[in-house]
Amino acid sequence: MLKNRIILILVLQGFFSYSQNSLNDSIKLKEVVVSITKIKENIKNSPFAISSKSFSKFQSTAKQFYLSEYIESVPGVFISNDNNFAQDSRISIRGFGSRANFGIRGIKLIVDGVPETTPDGQSQIDNLNLEIIEKIEIIRGTSSSLYGNSSAGVIKIQSISEFEKNFTKIGYALGSNNQEKKQALVGIKSNETFYTFLVSETKGNGYRNFGDFKNSNLNFRVKKNISKDSWLSFNFNIVDSPYSNDPGGLKIEEVNQDREQARKRNLQYNTSEEINHYKASSSFNKKINEQLSFSTYVFISNRNFNGKIPVKNGGAIDLKRKYWGIGGSFLFKSKLKTQIGFDIGNQNDRRKRYNNDIGIIGEQVLDQNEKFTNLGIYLVNNYNLNRFSISSGLRYDTNKVKLEDLFFSDGDSSGNIILSSFNPSLGLNYKLNKKSRIFVNTSSGFETPTLNEFSSSPIGTGFNKNLKSQINMGFELGFSMFDTQKKSNIDIVYFRSITNDEILSYEDEKFPNQKFYNNAGKTERNGIEITGLYTLNRTIISSSYSLGDYVFKEFIENNFNYKGNKIPGIPNDILTLSIEHKTKNKLFFNLNFKNVGTIYANNSNTIKIDDFSTFNFKIGKEFKLSRSIVYPYLIISNVFDKEYFDNIRINAFGGRYYEPAPKRTIFGGIRITL
Fold first, then answer.
1. Which DSSP letter does residue 456 get?
2. Is residue 75 helix, strand or coil?
3. Is 65 helix (H, G, I), strand (E, B) or coil?
4. pLDDT for residue 197
């Protein structure tokens, strides 16, 4: 009954409210053009559920610790595990990606036009430069016809690349749990060439014991407008994280005893990680004539990872990952816009494992090369006719997975796997009038197991060849109303998807403290998403609401039939509400409310995590001193000291599901623009 009332309130509010951007960036509500659908298009003409958010002003009071600060108000998006930097944030969109044991799965991440997601479908965000994010676009539905493997949702991030004049920005902030942020950003414009240089350091002790971390980041970017019809960009990023400790999951009895404690076994085995990562990329775009343009990208990346998990046998990991990619496309413009393109990706993981002898690296037990290569070819069409807009996509991907066993004392487990997929999409958008539209689309998608998931084999060595790719078919029906003069808007989207062979994580009592993966027979996702905003003078009230039903349709495991059970790790509903105000003398404040619904922790649904609500508060003030701008700010998170869980470890053996979230925290600092 309560859910129905919330939906009704939001729908009524929505007829005079909505926004996709934050206060200072969206106050003018200009026409929003998105490029995440490959062909640039006004968002009102696109027959997909897309969120577009700008952050040029938002950065002044952003903590810049977590990606969730930027996208948690997007409907259908759920982010957990923000405060365990050894595991990284886990992002799911409409439930896809929830299985990730660490990092991101099933969601494609694109940064400055270049894939951040590896060919096998893994993404980490420890090398993401939050400080220079300018814009984020998100496709909330299945998009394999555009981006191939692991594209049940797509997040496209654009960094600062062009500006009117030179600038220097420096910042320092600190807060609860000894969190500290130092940063310096320099922008130089020389004719039509733009240089940006960022250096930052982020560190803290963590809310829980043994949760300390440190991350240093350097980013250099150049964009040159060669002419009015062409541009070239180059980007280089390097990250050094010398330590990120993992306090582990707790039993509920341990949480009640001391929610800040680390799991004793994690302390004994010194569970932690060390990362060194660099990436270099380049993009080029050329308008050949009025009807034809060409674009291309290339990148190379190297990641060294050393980690320990609370397991003796193979519990010390040495992973050296090299991956590169290249892609290009031609765009033909007439009444029918057509883009033809390709993507090539190559990933090579050299994985070694050693025994973890109570925190000390012991005897080697595994040595193998894991390779994943991808070739994708796609065709995208957009056609606008009066009030109608039609979009279609077609993509073929072939993926080759290869294992080369270099540790022969236990035999030779080498082998190959070929995974191919063909994915179409079709969408129709119709403008009812100047202020409203409806759209409908359907699309197919696929997601291969990652190299880590293939190599997490209960037999000990080699790939788990019983693990299959998951295949899904999605459907969306949406309605929008917009009024740029009154600065209001609303989106309502219904979605449904059916997935075969969904990949799930589990733990086996024969191999405690280790994660394995299997396939469910069939799952179904249904839901509705509502977003809205109302602008009154200098105050904006924005809201989003997601309600979903995520269930197993067919799944029998170890003689247990889970048909009708909820998929674990996904909240059934999420509500966000934000009130923002900026006075004439540039005093800014924001009050944010978030409610996350119930979550199940295991396939059997015997462990239920209650819903929780949090309030966060921000305040900042801009001062002009000579030619400089000084911006002090204060952030209070979880204002009412609510006890809840930052992460739930799905299907954890022995009841170790819980990672408690920080209670009230205070964070403040100052940013200076010269």
1. -
2. coil
3. coil
4. 98
Of all helices (H) and strands (E), which one includes residue 280? strand 272-287
User: Is the model's pTM score more than 0.85?
Assistant: yes
CA dist., res. 38 & res. 341, Å (int)? 10
pLDDT of residue 643: 97
pLDDT reading at 514 higher than 80: no
Torsion-angle region of 224 (φ positive above 0: left; ψ -120 to 50: alpha; else: beta): beta
pLDDT by residue (tens digit) across 380-397?
999 999 899 999 999 999
Determine the Cα–Cα distance for residues 599 and 596; give it in Å rounded to an integer. Answer: 9
Lowest mean pLDDT segment, chosen from 297-311, 484-498, 617-631: 484-498
pLDDT of residue 142 exceeding 70: yes
Buried b (16+ CB within 10 A) or exposed e, 317-335: bbbebebbbebebebebee
Region 12-22 average pLDDT: 41
The pLDDT of residue 482 is 84
Task: Return the closest-CA partner of residue 567 out of 598, 531, 538.
Answer: 598
**Residue 373 near residue 346 (C-beta atoms within 8 A):** yes
* Contact residues for 59 (Cβ-Cβ < 8 A; gap 6+): 131, 133
- Exposure of 179 by Cβ count < 10 A (0-12 exposed, 13-18 middle, 19+ buried)? buried
Pairing relation of β-strands 316-332 and 292-308? antiparallel
CA distance 369 to 404: 5
Q: Structural domain boundaries of the chain?
A: 13-673
CA distance 92 to 88: 13
Report the CATH number of the 13-673 domain: 2.40.170.20
- Determine how many CB atoms are found less than 10 A away from the CB of residue 252: 12
Provide the sign of the torsion angle of the four alpha carbons 513, 515, 521, 524, taken in this order.
Answer: positive
The label of the residue with tokens 């259908």 reads 76
β-bridge pairing 107-111 and 153-159: parallel
More confident residue, 512 or 562: 562
The structure tokens listed for 376 are: 């994708």
Fill in the DSSP letter of residue 148: -
pLDDT band with cut points at 50, 70 and 90 for residue 72:
very high
**Selection from 122, 116, 124 nearest residue 85 by Cα:** 124
Rounded Cα–Cα distance for residues 292 and 287 (Å):
6
Name the E strands within 112-176.
114-115, 122-123, 133-139, 153-159, 167-175
The model's confidence at residue 512, banded by pLDDT at 50, 70 and 90, is low
Residues forming a β-bridge with 436: 433, 481
Query: Up-side HSE of residue 303: CA atoms within 13 Å toward CB?
Result: 23
**H-helix or E-strand spanning residue 265:** helix 264-268
- The helix/strand/coil state of 18 is coil
Give the pLDDT confidence score for residue 434 in this predicted structure: 87
C-alpha dist (Å) from residue 651 to 1, 141, 524, 549, 607: 30, 26, 19, 19, 9
Cβ partners under 8 Å of residue 558, min gap 6 = none
Question: How far, in Å, CA of 353 to CA of 367, rounded?
Answer: 7
